[in-house]
Amino acid sequence: MNDYRSGPVGGALSGGPGLREAGFESGPAAISAMGLRKSFGGQVVLDGIDLEVAEGTVFALLGPNGAGKTTTVNILSTLITADGGDIRVAGHDPAREPEAVRRSIGVTGQFSAVDDLLTGEENLRLMADLGHLGRAEGRRRAAGLLERFDLVQAAKKTPPQYSGGMRRRLDLAMTLMVDPRVVFLDEPTAGLDPRGRRTMWRIIRDLVADDVTIFLTTQYLEEADQLADRIAILDHGTLVAQGTGYELKRRIPGGHVRLEFADARGLESAAGIVGGSTREEDALALRVPTDGGVGSLKTMLDRLEGGGIPVEEISMHTPDLDDVFLALTGHPETGKDAPR
Amino acid sequence: MNALSLWVGDSATMLRRQLRHMQRYPSLVVLLVSVPVILLLLFVYVFGETLGAGLGGPSGGRGAYADYVTPGIILITVASVAQGTAISVAMDTTSGIVTRFRTMAISRASVLTGHVLGAMTKTMLAVAVVVGVAMLVGFQPTATALEWLAAVGVLAMVSWALTWLTVALGLVTDSVETASNLPMPLILLPFFGSGFVPTESMPDWLRWFAEYQPFTPVMETLRGLLLGTAIGNSAILAVAWCAAISLVGFLWAKALFNRDSTH
């Protein structure tokens, strides 16, 4: 199981350092970070991560709360400075040329960044004014985005009258007013109901069609898989894997099988027979990663039967973030502490 | 676009935003004006007769006290609006919109200048209301047009200084409640100066503080301009205090706003 945790995954970094010397304009990377490090008061939050996002693609940073996702976004979007690492966003170093980076990016953070005292339309016009777009152009773009994000009815209302999904859409529309080339979305669907989530996914997919580069963070494997060209998995400040959704899922093929036993003795002996499993002591259950194939399942059950261990109940689970972590790091998702 | 025109343009945008807020949420301004108005009515109608007699002037009584107390009440108005600024700065910075501004290619200073200019607009409106009420309850200024203009200038100066200070106070804390408490001493300061009674009537130790604290020269200057009392070196002291407070407030606010943080 631990084969995947060692070092950067082969082929994850497509461009290599040569491309930066060639200059951003001709290179394919909208975002690149090498050896990105950040600590807060002695606590290491990012411990040397390497990532590269090609122009016009969607990149998902997947990880539990506290893994360092928001810190990464904050560094790349010029909000905080890194302790170390070589970073380029739209061809510029966020620490040395924050203004140049800010001219190319748009950020929709985890927490609502709309003005509650302004109407939806006024919020968009505020962005237009700050983007120095000019009156007519600002009005035109605001109208277009209200239409596109299904906010026409809400244009004259203030955000406290909005639903969670509408508020999130307005937030993103404000980000898009100034036509950013690189968009950061920090947990864009956190707290949304399934319908709101699906609407947001559709909007994000449409953005890609406009050739915008998207850097999104999420806690949901499904979301990353649905939206991203490449996914990097962050755990305790290090990237444990990087690749396409297909590549990652191949490593966590069928999620896991959950076996329940009648007593602790059954659990104990089963754990001895089935390698790479995790115990849920309280539930007298065993989680066994599997490729989902019938053959391997049969082999496992045969071995349990051969050992004379009765299985009370058996259930299959499709992969979720827990499985990804189990498969890639050898430990279950642990970072369920306060969001960072 | 160069830095200066960027700053001017973005500050204008931010000021428009503040004015829109004031229009959407007028109750905040009403609330801020109510503090000085209540104090004015209390001091003129409840204590006015006695305190006015104690002033030792030729006319004495309530009318004389209304004249005497109005400059102090004006300063309380300025401080009260400044307190509102600390609250709105704290609300802004905790709400995420300022985080958005920080990621945009705008003049960063404009976020703060917008607050300061908005607060000064509010101050002028609030003071106009308070002076109106004061005139209704017996305040009889003797100022010429030029003296009124100078008084407005003094107000703008002190409002500018206190606002920068309270912008910093609004940035220094993460909580709106704390932000609303921190500027409290500013509202009390006129009491421990020449705002409500002449400093000569105070015990020595308090008198020393009252005469050297920043609000006293400002109130004496306003009193001189509006009522024709002697100004002496108060005007110079008022300018010096305001310049010093503005500078400290501005540098402090700037440092707080630019610190490496995401709130």
How would you summarize the topology of this molecule?
The complex is a heterodimer of chains A (340) and B (263).
Chain A (H helix, E strand, L loop, with lengths): L17 H4 L7 E12 L2 E12 L3 E5 L6 H8 L7 E6 L8 H7 E4 L11 H11 L4 H14 L15 H13 L5 E5 L7 H16 L3 E6 L2 H7 L2 E6 L2 E6 L1 H7 L4 E6 L2 H10 L4 E3 L4 E5 L4 H13 L4 E7 L3 H9 L11
Parallel strand pairs in A: 3-7, 3-8, 5-6, 6-7
Antiparallel strand pairs in A: 1-2, 1-4, 8-9, 10-12, 10-13, 11-12
Chain B lengths: L2 H22 L1 H29 L6 H34 L2 H6 L6 H28 L8 H28 L3 H6 L2 H5 L15 H9 L2 H13 L6 H25 L5
Helix pairs in contact in B: 1-2, 1-5, 2-3, 2-5, 3-5, 3-6, 3-10, 5-6, 6-10, 6-11, 10-11
Short structural description:
The complex is a heterodimer of chains A (340) and B (263). With 340 residues, chain A is α/β, with parallel strands linked by helices.
Describe, in plain words, how this protein is organized in 3D.
The complex is a heterodimer of chains A (340) and B (263). With 340 residues, chain A is of the alpha/beta class. Chain A has two domains: 2-250, P-loop containing nucleotide triphosphate hydrolases (Rossmann fold, 3-Layer(aba) Sandwich); 253-329, 2-Layer Sandwich (Alpha-Beta Plaits), CATH 3.30.70. Chain A is built from twelve helices and 13 strands. In chain A, 44% of the residues are buried. Mean pLDDT of chain A is 83; it is low at 1-27 and 334-340. Chain B has one domain (3-258). Chain B is 78% helix and 0% strand. Chain B contains eleven helices and no strands. In chain B, helix 1 crosses helix 2, helix 1 packs across helix 5 (109-136) and helix 5 packs across helix 6 (145-172). The longest helix of chain B is centred in the N-terminal third of the chain and has 34 residues, at 61-94. Chains A and B meet through helix 3, strand 5 and helix 4 of A and helix 1 and helix 4 of B.
